[in-house]
Structures are given as C-alpha cells and as structure tokens.
Design brief:
By secondary structure, the protein is mainly β. It has one domain: Jelly Rolls (Sandwich). 7% of the residues lie in helices and 36% in strands. The protein is built from 1 helix and 13 strands; from the N terminus they run αβββββββββββββ. The strands form 2 sheets. Strands 1, 3, 4, 6, 9, 10, 11 and 13 form an 8-stranded antiparallel sheet that branches. Strand 10 and strand 11 form a beta hairpin. The chain starts with 5 loop residues before the first helix and ends with a strand.
Length: 214
C-alpha cells in the first residue's frame, strides 16, 4: 500500500468534508429580512402599517405595500423560489406580490398577487393566484404559523402551502387580460407584502428567496 504524505492526506480530508457537508446540498437560499429592521424594504403611503415584533414583520393598519428594494439580485427577480412563514389573525387579509415594482400608493398595478386570507369575507383563500387561479379551500388556520412558497420558472407559477401544492398555473403565450389587469403577467421585478385594511393583522418572518437560472 502506498503511503500518503501528511499534506496530501489533509487536502483529501478537506475535499471529502466539503463534498459531504449538508449545507452544500441546499444552495442559494438568501434571506430578505434580518428579523430586526425593515432595512432593504420600502413603503410609501401609510408606512406605519408595517412594524417589527419578535423577529417578524407585523402588518396592521390602513392599506399599504412594503416593497423589497434591497441588494439581493438588485431586487429584480425573474425565475425564483420564494418562501416565508406567515401567521394570519381572524378576519385578516394580506398578500404577497411578485414581479412587481415600487409604487407610492394604491394597489400595485404590476405583477401577480398570491393571497393570504383564511377567514376574511373575500372568498379567495390563502394560496390563490389572485383573480387568475383562485383557491376556495382553507388549508391553514388563523393564529398558527405556516409556510407559503411561490416558485416561478419561465411561464409556470407553483404555489405551496406547508409543502402542499395548491396552485399550478402556466401563463398562456396569447395572454389577453382586461384593461385593469393588463400588467398581471410574467415578467420580472421585486416582491411586496400587502397591508389590506385597518382591521387586518398578519405576521411574516423567515422571508427567503432562491434565484433560479433563466
């Protein structure tokens, strides 16, 4: 048996350790929220709707939208996986926008909205690709944390609630939207969290994204 030099043995050992580290198998997830501040996020009208409490973004107040404007991928995402922990309270309504852009006020006109709503009067429930492919079933309860995940790859959108797929939507090439939804289409852009109304209170934490190749 050939003897291996000490230097070569150490090198081989390091290569083996790197090859089998579990972290190397889950590449690419990056946090968009530090759990302490709204650094990297921007809101226009009604900025007081968003605050920080116990490591989560609390959404409670008049209509407002909090846009990610930070350095990750220069806040411009096309193909991606996005996931966050969410907790709703009874009667609350919120949403997660993607492929959108900063807007000072009003409902974001660009991009798609993924619904956050388990008991609000709006029948479109959590996981709906709002007004495009809606979900009537309630998969999670108020006052409990759950995971909401959005994957966009080319023209396909997949939405999962606690790892259960609730929406699979492929945008047609010959898309024809009404005038008020003309910018609801696959493109590129950032994410936004929605403050829907003063009676709604929703929590978001562990907000992460993984950029996928074009």
């Amino acid at each position: 048996m050939k003897k291996v030099s000490n230097g070569l043995f150490v090198l081989l050992l390091l290569v083996a350790c790197v090859s089998f580290r579990p972290e190397t198998q889950k590449k690419g997830w990056v946090s968009l929220f530090d759990g302490k501040s709204l650094d990297g996020w921007k809101v226009g009208a009604n900025a007081g709707t968003f605050s920080i409490e116990n490591g989560a973004i609390v959404v409670a107040g008049p209509r407002a939208h909090l846009f990610y404007e930070g350095p990750v991928n220069n806040h411009n995402f096309k193909n991606f996986e996005f996931k966050t922990q969410v907790m709703t309270t009874p009667g609350s309504n919120s949403g997660i926008y993607f492929h959108t852009e900063y807007q000072e006020d009003g409902w974001p006109s660009k991009g798609y909205e993924v619904q956050v709503n388990n008991s609000h009067t709006d029948w479109r429930r959590t996981g709906s690709l709002y007004a495009v492919q809606d979900v009537k079933e309630v998969y999670v309860k108020d006052n409990e944390w759950y995971t909401e995940q959005i994957t966009v790859k080319d023209k396909k959108v997949t939405i999962k609630i606690n790892d259960k797929t609730v929406v699979e939507y492929t945008e047609p090439d010959n898309l024809d939207r009404s005038k008020d939804m003309s910018n609801r289409k696959i493109s590129n852009g950032t994410f936004a969290l929605q403050g829907h109304d003063p009676k709604s209170k929703v929590y978001f934490k562990d907000i992460q994204v993984r950029v996928l190749p074009d």
